[in-house]
């Protein structure tokens, strides 16, 4: 997906 | 996902539930800063712009909806619920938080992972969350005695980011090239702002006394 990896956290 | 992050998310969820309980059970929001609640609503709306565009997991999506929904519901309740709004300490909750919002947004324009709409708003939400508790801490000092649920709310809200710091240390040690300077530095500042609250909270717990913050 387009997001960079740090968006996996809330 | 690691145990520290899960503990952090659960602690954050507990803080939200304690606040909802306080408002629902006592039909009062005395001691709660509407400004901090509004800042948190901005934090979640700015951070979760990817809510519909990127699916990470059911857990991630559900938690984002819970945080956005609860923060908006609490702001609505404190502003418009005919019973709750009467107990809002309007004259004590006077922190001029637009200065914080402007400073955080300016910083996000300068310091971000990537210069894109989503990343600038993400960095803005991280910086804003670090200082979002300030109106609430100022209100606690002004309003003197703090009721138990309010104290517990602030305690869990502060503790959750401390768990996230452990999560970032864990991920730094276990994942190659894991670096999250924006989150880590902001998280440290955010947790440090709670330091004196944690101290007085611990003292009140040890002495089994009411929580009193020095004016």
From TrEMBL, chain B:
Gene Ontology terms: cellular component: cis-Golgi network; endoplasmic reticulum membrane
Signal sequence region: none
InterPro entries (UniProt xref): ER_ret_rcpt
Transmembrane segments: 55-76, 97-115, 121-141, 153-173, 179-202
Membrane topology recorded in Swiss-Prot or TrEMBL: Multi-pass membrane protein
Pfam families membership: ER_lumen_recept (PF00810)
Primary location class: endoplasmic reticulum
Keyword hit for Ion transport: no
Assigned keywords, A-Z: Endoplasmic reticulum, ER-Golgi transport, Membrane, Protein transport, Receptor, Transmembrane, Transmembrane helix, Transport
Biological process terms in GO annotation: protein retention in ER lumen; protein transport; vesicle-mediated transport
Family statement: Belongs to the ERD2 family.
Entry protein name: ER lumen protein-retaining receptor
Species this protein is from: Nicotiana attenuata
Upper classification of the organism: Eukaryota, Viridiplantae, Streptophyta, Embryophyta, Tracheophyta
Encoding gene, per UniProt annotation: ERD2A
């Amino acid at each position: 997906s387009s997001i960079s990896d740090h968006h996996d956290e809330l | 996902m690691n145990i520290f992050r899960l503990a952090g998310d659960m602690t954050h969820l507990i803080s939200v539930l304690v606040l909802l309980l306080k408002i629902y059970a006592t039909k009062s929001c005395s001691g709660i800063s509407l400004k901090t609640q509004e800042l948190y609503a901005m934090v979640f709306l700015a951070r979760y712009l990817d809510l519909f565009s990127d699916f990470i997991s059911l857990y991630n999506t559900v938690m984002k909806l819970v945080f956005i929904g609860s923060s908006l519901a609490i702001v609505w309740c404190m502003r418009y619920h005919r019973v709750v709004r009467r107990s809002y300490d309007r004259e004590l909750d006077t922190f001029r938080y637009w200065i914080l919002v402007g400073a955080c947004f300016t910083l996000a324009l300068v310091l971000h992972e990537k210069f894109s709409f989503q990343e600038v708003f993400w960095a803005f939400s991280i910086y804003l969350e670090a200082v979002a508790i300030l109106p609430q801490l100022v209100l606690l000092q002004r309003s003197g005695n703090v009721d138990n649920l309010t104290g517990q709310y602030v305690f869990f809200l502060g503790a959750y980011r401390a768990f996230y710091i452990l999560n970032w240390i864990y991920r730094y040690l276990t994942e190659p090239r894991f670096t999250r300077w924006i989150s880590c530095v902001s998280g440290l500042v955010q947790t440090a702002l709670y330091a004196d609250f944690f101290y007085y909270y611990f003292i009140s717990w040890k002495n089994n006394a009411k929580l009193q913050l020095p004016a």
